Amino acid sequence: MTADGFLTLGSDRYPACFGRAGITREKEEGDFATPVGLLPLRRVLYRADRLAAPRTVLPLEPLGPRDGWCDDPKDPAYNRMVRLPYAGRHEALWRDDAVYDLIGVLGWNDSPVASGRGSAIFLHVTTPDRAPTAGCIALSLDHLREVLAKGLTGIEVYGA
Q1: What letter does residue 36 receive in the DSSP assignment?
Q2: How many helices (H) and strands (E) does the chain have?
Q3: Which residues partner with 155 through β-bridges?
Q4: Spacing of C-alpha 102 from chain mean position
Q5: pTM score, whole prediction
Q6: What does the DSSP assignment read for 134-148?
Q7: Which residues contact 79 (CB under 8 A, 6 or more apart)?
Q8: What are the DSSP E strand ranges found in the chain?
Q9: Which residues, including other chains, have CB under 8 Å from residue 128's CB and lie 6 or more apart?
């Protein structure tokens, strides 16, 4: 993934969206930037009520209405999946739009977790207008399904 907005897998290139603040080497919570680095894909989450299970070599889990992700740097569950309702600041993974219908959980700030270094960095579906993300990487649903089926296990982000 480069600042020119493409994810490259072998000889194939896929238009991608990244954070509206661009790509950064100094990722901080809430900065709207996509972090530079090798981001392994940890697992894939999907809306089984909307999509068939994608083909992937990664662990695969269906999402449920009570799934969320903690984005509160002061919370012990920071940058972890949580069950809703949840008292700490979080985002719901079960959304009305299609953006989180298919999610690749990227390994950013997760081993170990450092408070304030960024959370919920996902590979997910683009918005219909292909708007920049809040720091994630987004592909069209078809392209996301395709790269997962081809065995994608991580993304190296260059730039900044």
Answers
A1: P
A2: 1, 13
A3: 39
A4: 9
A5: 0.96
A6: SS-EEE-HHHHHHHH
A7: 69, 70, 71, 109, 110, 113, 118, 119, 120
A8: 6-9, 12-15, 23-24, 34-35, 37-46, 60-62, 67-70, 81-83, 90-92, 102-106, 122-125, 137-139, 154-157
A9: none
Neighbours of 142 (CB within 10 A): 10
Q: With CA atoms as reference, report the closest residue to 102 among 73, 134, 74, 60.
A: 60
Tens-level pLDDT at each residue, the chain (160 residues):
656 689 999 999 999 999 999 999 999 999 999 999 999 999 999 999 999 999 999 999 999 999 999 999 999 999 999 999 999 999 999 999 999 999 999 999 999 999 999 999 999 999 999 999 999 999 999 999 999 999 999 999 987 5
CA 69 to chain centre: 11
- The dihedral built from the CA positions of residue 139, 128, 78 and 25, taken in this order, carries a sign that is positive
Beta bridge partners of 90: 70
Judge whether 157 and 35 are in contact, CB under 8 Å: yes
